[in-house]
Amino acid sequence: MAITTFTRQLNLPETLAMSVALMAPTTGMVFVTPFLAAASGYNVPLAFVVSLIGVLVIGFSFGRLGRRYAHAGSAYGLTKDALGPTAGLFAGWGLALTYLMLTAALLAGTGEFANLAIAQVTGLQVPWGVLALVAAAIVLWFAIRDVRVSMRMMLLLEGLSMALIVVVSALLIGHAHLTATTAIKPFVLNDRGVVGIAEAMVFGLTSFLGFEGSATLGEESKDPKRMVPLAIIFSALVGGVFFVFVAYSQTVGYGLTPSDVQAFSADATPMNTLVQRYLGNTFSAMINVGAAISFFACAAASVNASSRIVFALARDRYIPRRLSVVHSVMNIPRAAVYVVFAIGLALLGLGTVLFKTPSNVLGYLSGLGTFGALVAYGLVVVAALVEYWRSDLKNRKVFFIALPMIGLGLIGYVIYGSVYPVPAAPVNFFPYIVLGYFAVVITFSVIHRRRSSTIDSSVRFTENGALSYAAEAD
What we know:
Blueprint: H1 12-23, H2 25-31, H3 33-40, H4 44-66, H5 75-83, H6 85-122, H7 128-143, H8 147-175, H9 180-184, H10 193-206, H11 224-254, H12 258-265, H13 270-278, H14 281-315, H15 334-355, H16 358-394, H17 398-419, H18 430-451, E1 460-461, E2 467-468
Antiparallel strand pairs: 1-2
Helix pairs in contact: 1-8, 1-11, 1-14, 2-14, 3-10, 3-12, 4-10, 4-11, 4-16, 4-17, 5-6, 5-16, 6-7, 6-14, 6-15, 6-16, 6-18, 7-14, 8-11, 8-14, 10-17, 13-14, 14-15, 15-16, 16-17, 16-18
């Protein structure tokens, strides 16, 4: 008999690992901060503080729904009951798009930064594509093993990379020779004002992408209705503090004059520049090693997370049911893992052909994937609002009603800021690509569901409300 339910075996740190690794704080600090500097000047740390508040508002909605529903489909499972199956499909396929794009993008990032680290340490030039494929093979090996091993590996690697960046950032702050006046200046609103902070938030909020990843472990955590909401909020808090600290070190490392800010905003690899300037080649190699580790851990988390969403959709017969089978020993949906891994690898190849360099593959594919997450986030916030609207009104919890409203406003603003002013090609095509993607996958899902045979009498409901089948997979 095919097994289509998970064993609950993950503790809180293992559940937390998915969100931390998917958010991959180190990767954002390697190349995102110049975009915030271009918008907000030397207020980059302040922009991250405001972005953290916004992410916590969105995380509040994930947490409220997570205390009621525990589902492997993450946003799909959290929205389909409150908003209906169609909304659930949009949310699930939106996050699936994000995780699939991240798989390809992060393998490219792993190859690029591993290449830089090897060249600095040994002087050898190993093609980034070869290193990316090696990383992909290791990612697959971990993804098909015991899920606990995979989660522990991701948490360890991401924690190590964050620790390296924190040490280097502290050293950079020490070399900045700050006075009492200059030390606080990055947190005091500058002449670009609220508009600059708002523009920077488009990049600040997307830096937290993946903080909701623990929701995909809703059927594998020992106590998901407690652990998953805790993991989501805690990962956002840890990531936010990390972002603020590292962004602060880069801001004061460059300096606070207009020319310093211009240099910061024009630098594609600000951390490496500062480390080379103040600390030398050895520390620069450490940064590249830490970045490669973070990219790898995030790629592994992306495969794990997307396979759970595919599993959930297959179990509800929106895609072939054979993808909902769980390995009886490893407790992972192996068929789903193989499918999402193959798609991620294909996207890596396509991205390489279209965009040539690993940095372009990383930037464009991750940017494309962002739209899927924003759709999913918006639907989760709406679902939380709908689910609790009556009880909040009855109990006069105005604050609990206001938070989702704020979250929707922030998500809407980020989407608006991503498409207007109209960006240069190929980014200007991304919204249309995403719309086409949704048209294809939603249509396929609806048709497949209708053509599937009527659910037989062996269907039962698990304690978390998810469907479970005793019959063999198709």
